[in-house]
Amino acid sequence: MSKREAFIEKLREIAVSTPTEIIEVPDKVEGFGTVVYESQTCSACKKCMDVCEVDALDIQLTLNLPEYLAATIPEDGFRSKNREALVFLLQHLKQNGEVQAISVPTGLPGYGSISWVQDKCIACNKCVEICPENCLTLEKQYDLQAVIGEVVSPPVVEVKEWEPFIICFVCWECSHAAADLAGLMHLHYPANIRTIRVPCSGAVEPIHIMTAMQNGADGVLVTGCLFDECHYGGDDELAGNFMQYDFVQFWKQVFEGIGLGGRLHIDFASAAMGIKFTEIVTEFVQQIEELGPSPLRGKLEVEE
Ligand code: FES
Asked: Which residues, judged by CB distance below 6 Å to any ligand atom, belong to the binding site of ligand 1?
């Protein structure tokens, strides 16, 4: 199973409601997008298919005539195969009235329609770059519903004496030290969190967040060094914490879409900020208390 397939399967497993909104993908978040195709100018050269490493593109030997006829049609001569095909297509339309798509005669190059599979696409942009006719573009949008389909909401279960259970990823360099300092200072924050040390906040992957939720967490908190102080990039805009911040903004929208809104948060504290770390945790625990138990608990109970 590819990484993308594993990701989508996990997404389907933790979804508790059907997404309705198209998600905007932040600039720095790679791997997610929508390929838009304009068939009018496509010469069916298949270069986009050749360059795609995940087989997200295919060619259909059909033409969408309404779109095709909207293009400027050359009127001089019938010498080439392509022009013969054009006449054939126009005549076919005339004969059949409201034709939406027709088959391309075998052996006639230069005609066809590219189809795109969002499930497989990793938004690498290679097909866009190689297309000689500029008929492909990559939009920073993601249609969650198209990927995970309709979701059956799990039953609501009554949880007695519930306490929030929160997974908190702490970066080894700063926020973990901040948590330690909070302990040394005898600062009290809710004992509802389980910390997991990671080398950098940027090392937390979506699959880690989803797995935490799938295993019963009511919320996930990611913490890292202050902006400009990440040990993997400092003030570089590609530093781990900068990148993770944008990722989490995207993932918050994904969580919203699948019925887990408000259960993911990212924040930052330096090693000297025991008090700040305490505040971050306390506020997030309060937020989860207001939301109540994760609706995934119903799913877990059904599966048990
Ligand atoms: Fe702490 Fe990167 S090392 S967030």
From this structure: 171, 173-174, 200-202, 224-225, 230-232, 240-241
Name the residue ranges covered by the structural domains of the chain. Answer: 34-139, 166-303
Q: Tell me: the pLDDT tens digits for 202-249?
A: 999 999 999 999 999 999 999 999 999 999 999 898 899 999 999 999
CA of 270 to the centre of ligand 1 (A): 10
Cα 88 to ligand 1 centroid, rounded to whole Å: 63
CA-CA distance, 265 to 117, in Å (whole number)? 31
- Between the CA of 245 and the centroid of ligand 1 the distance, in Å, is 11
State the CB neighbour count (10 A cutoff) for residue 143.
14
What pLDDT band is residue 97 in, cutting at 50, 70 and 90?
low
Class of CATH domain 34-139: alpha beta
Distances (CA, A) of 32 to 20, 57, 65: 17, 15, 30
pTM: 0.81
Q: What is the CATH number of domain 166-303?
A: 3.40.50
